[in-house]
Amino acid sequence: MLPQQRQDQIVRALRADGAGGVKVLAAQLGVSEATIRRDLEQLHEQGRLTRVYGGALAVDGGDEPFAEVSAVHATEKDRIARRAAALVTDGQSLLLDIGTTALRVAQQLHGRSLTVVTSNLAVLEELQNDEQIELIILGGFVRRSYRSLVGYLTEESLRQIHVDWLFLGTSGVRPDGRVMDSTMIEVPVKRAMIKAADKVVLLADATKFPGHGVAKVCEPTELSMVVTEPAADQATRTQLTEAGVEVVLA
């Protein structure tokens, strides 16, 4: 992982959790504590976090997390999104998770006869004027900076539906294939989505192998498929395959 990618992940983890310790961040990112300390010092100098004893605190940045992430690895995400959209047959139903890769999947669905269910407000904006698509928005509390809906109402809505496909996002995949997320308030919604779908497809670019995350979303055995890149860690891909997951390279 490049230093810039690692530092971006540190900032996103702090924004999700509010604070982070050196030891925890080092474990999440699989690097030494000395490397994390250097990253924190550089990020502090850049004004992207506040350095404190033993770790760092998040700061209120100017850019929204969704907008900041949207431009990162855009080409790779587009390839993954095209491959994911090709899995769906007209007449089927699908759930789209939060995140920028799910938005890119939505961009590939225009003009198709599909039912799309989502808690992603960016997907709502993308598909709301497409009359071919039956669009269902889950209820819930609005997280404006992440352009998502969360909470009890969202989870309850998911208990009332069932779909053919779920396209799921993640903060990272552990070497043993566990799917993790650093935005803890989103995890119960992701788990409810998994229960509401026949087939669960994880969308993850190569930087997510291995990735960070403090909360487990699911075990690899709960996935049907992972759509990723050829550059994704081979050992992790092997673990997924051995768990019965189909790994598709975009």
How would you describe this protein?
The structure is a single chain. This protein has 250 residues and is α/β, with parallel strands linked by helices. 38% of the residues lie in helices and 24% in strands. The protein is built from ten helices and 15 strands. The protein has helices at 3-17, 22-29, 33-45, 65-70, 74-85, 100-107, 121-127, 152-158, 187-195, 234-242, and strands spanning 19-21, 49-52, 55-58, 93-96, 114-118, 133-137, 141-143, 148-150, 163-168, 172-173, 179-181, 197-203, 215-218, 225-228, 246-249. The strands form four sheets. It has a seven-stranded parallel sheet with strand order 6-5-4-9-12-14-15, with helices on both faces. A three-stranded antiparallel sheet has the order 1-3-2. It has a three-stranded antiparallel sheet with strand order 10-11-13, covered by helices on one side. Helix 2 packs across helix 3, helix 5 (74-85) crosses helix 6 and helix 6 packs parallel to helix 7 (121-127). It is globular, with a radius of gyration of 18 Å. The protein starts with a helix and ends with a strand. The mean pLDDT is 89. GO terms for molecular function: DNA binding.
Topology:
Blueprint: H1 3-17, E1 19-21, H2 22-29, H3 33-45, E2 49-52, E3 55-58, H4 65-70, H5 74-85, E4 93-96, H6 100-107, E5 114-118, H7 121-127, E6 133-137, E7 141-143, E8 148-150, H8 152-158, E9 163-168, E10 172-173, E11 179-181, H9 187-195, E12 197-203, E13 215-218, E14 225-228, H10 234-242, E15 246-249
Parallel strand pairs: 4-5, 4-9, 5-6, 9-12, 12-14, 14-15
Antiparallel strand pairs: 1-3, 2-3, 7-8, 10-11, 11-13
Helix pairs in contact: 2-3, 5-6, 6-7
